[in-house]
Design brief:
Layout (H helix, E strand, L loop, with lengths): L1 H8 L1 H24 L10 H18 L1 H6 L3 H12 L1 H15 L5 H9 L1
Helix pairs in contact: 1-2, 2-6, 5-6
Length: 115
């Protein structure tokens, strides 16, 4: 129990664990479920962060024809589910924030302070 509760008692550790979980869920399930571009969460984050916006842009260009005819009802229901469910919305916001550089990556922040 002590090991499981450790992240709850340490804000920095909790933030790092939450970001890691959010990124893994996004990379393995969330991106595909939302119809966003997918990629691996393995390896350093820097290449992911650097390439994320270009991948998203190319994805949106490819999907332009789809959106010009309008999303399907199942698209709307899927997106609604993700944004209506608070835990899914928080996971998505955290993962996209870290990948887009809006949220400071706790892993990199810890590595920088330990040097």
């Amino acid at each position: 129990m002590e090991r499981c509760n450790r992240p709850i008692n340490n804000q920095d550790l909790f933030e790092s664990v939450w970001q890691e979980v959010a990124l893994r869920v996004y990379c393995h399930h969330g991106a595909r479920y939302m119809g966003f571009p997918t990629f691996s969460d393995k390896g350093p984050r820097e290449p992911i962060i650097r390439n994320f916006l270009s991948k998203l842009k190319s994805f949106l260009i490819k999907r332009a024809d789809h959106f010009s005819t309008g999303p399907s009802q199942s698209d709307y229901l899927r997106w609604y589910h993700v944004v209506a469910c608070e835990s899914h919305r928080q996971m998505l916001a955290t993962a996209l924030g870290v990948l887009g550089g809006e949220i400071v990556d706790a892993k990199r922040k810890k590595q920088a302070t330990s040097r």
